[in-house]
Design a protein that fits this description.
The chain is built from 15 helices and eight strands. The protein has helices spanning 2-18, 22-27, 54-71, 109-117, 128-138, 167-176, 194-202, 213-216, 226-237, 247-264, 266-276, 288-293, 308-311, 315-354, 362-376, and strands at residues 38-48, 74-75, 77-87, 99-106, 148-155, 180-186, 208-211, 380-381.
């Protein structure tokens, strides 16, 4: 629902900027494919889950929402899909090269977070070439010419140890599909292994970075806005109206991912709340506010698929109730976006002071990579 309302919020803002009417903005479905105000962005995050990579997994859990929020500032508005791939676990089997697609491309950001929190580490062989070739060949990448297709691979072993597929073969597959491979070496940039990771990235004109995964996992920046954002999130959640057979399951997962983020740090939950007030968080498949804002008519929904309190209402009462919840959400999201801007400015100021002394973080290198590649594809980044 958040995503739905986030998109409506974005549409209303565009209306103000462009001088169009609110009615026109609602007619312009922010979820519609191929609109002139949106472009497809496919992002794969491939993580080494071998025994030594617990810090990397912790970083991914903490930083997902920071990564999404960076893309949320992109113009034209991205149609973001994320896939999660893991490698290096012997339980995946040698026939797969110890690679597993944990989550195919999805716009369900709660599902992405749920997948990350399901990871555990287990020692094994890490075949970077195999994870690249598997991601390229087995995922349903967007075929649109102006789509942005990005693969991030993070790990700490030699990138050239796959016995069956060479780095060159894997990157040739990526180049043929217009997929940019970016590598994140979890180790010292001066290590001899770093050269192989640089080579993988350079073969697709991708970006290379090195991080200290263990230090980066705990490098949080708390802000004065975090507590306020957490409180607003509680009110925001009350505006969701789960519907359909799976509505309550999706609703519970939304709350589970709030709890997961909150258990990591105040920074993680605050960042997630900002995402839920942004343009990329979409709950239209289970939330009535987002569904209606995306063009679905209440009359199309079977009465038995509505929440029990709404089943006793007539059509006018149902429409009024959904409209009321939508209004509450829009007001809350506006407050969250303002606090999000202040929070972002606060963090940027702290990072400037820490420049050169703080360890590079997973989200930092992914954010910079996404921004650089997106700008090369014609996207611009504006303050919200």
């Amino acid at each position: 629902m958040l995503n739905r309302m986030n998109k409506i919020s974005a549409s209303l803002l565009l209306c103000v900027l462009l001088g169009t009417s609110v009615a026109d903005s609602v007619l312009a479905n922010p979820n519609s494919e191929g609109t002139e105000h949106s472009r497809k962005v496919d992002v794969v995050i491939a993580l080494d889950v071998s025994g030594s990579m617990s810090g990397l997994i912790a970083s991914a859990k903490q930083r997902l929402w920071d990564i999404v929020n960076e893309l949320g500032r992109a113009q034209p508005q991205p149609q973001l899909r994320i896939s999660i791939v893991s490698y290096g676990n012997p339980e995946y089997g040698a026939d797969t090269g110890f690679v597993r697609i944990d989550l195919p491309f999805t716009s369900d950001l709660d599902a992405v977070n749920q997948t990350l929190f399901g990871f555990s580490t287990n020692g094994g062989d890490e075949y970077v070439a195999r994870v690249v070739s598997t991601s390229v060949s087995q995922l349903a990448w967007s075929a649109e010419q102006d789509a942005l297709r990005i693969l991030f691979v993070a790990g700490n072993e030699a990138a050239t140890q796959d016995p069956l597929i060479s780095v060159r073969q894997a990157t040739q597959l990526a180049n043929a599909r217009g997929i940019v491979v970016n590598t994140i070496y979890c180790g010292n940039a001066n290590d001899s292994l770093a050269a192989g990771w640089r080579e993988v990235a350079s073969m697709t004109n991708g970006l290379y970075a090195s991080i200290d995964q263990n230090s980066a996992a705990v490098a949080n920046i708390a802000t004065p806005m975090d507590e306020k954002l957490t409180k607003l999130n509680q009110a925001l959640n009350d505006t969701y109206i789960a519907y359909g057979e799976a509505g309550e399951r999706y609703r519970e997962n939304q709350l589970d991912q709030d709890r997961n983020a909150g258990a990591m740090s105040s920074s993680a939950i605050a960042s997630r709340v900002v995402t839920k007030a942004g343009k990329l968080y979409d709950s239209s498949k289970w939330d009535l506010v987002d569904a209606v804002n995306s063009g679905k008519a209440l009359e199309e929904i079977e009465v038995e698929n509505l929440p029990v309190p709404m089943q006793a209402m007539d059509n006018e009462e149902r429409e009024a109730f959904v409209k009321e919840q939508a209004g509450k959400r829009e007001a809350l999201q506006a407050k969250i976006r303002e606090l999000g801007k202040d929070r972002r400015a606060f963090i940027e100021n702290v990072r400037k002071k820490q420049a050169g002394s703080a360890p590079k973080r997973l989200d930092e290198v992914i954010q910079k990579g996404l921004k650089s590649l997106a700008e090369a594809k014609g996207f611009t980044f504006e303050d919200e």
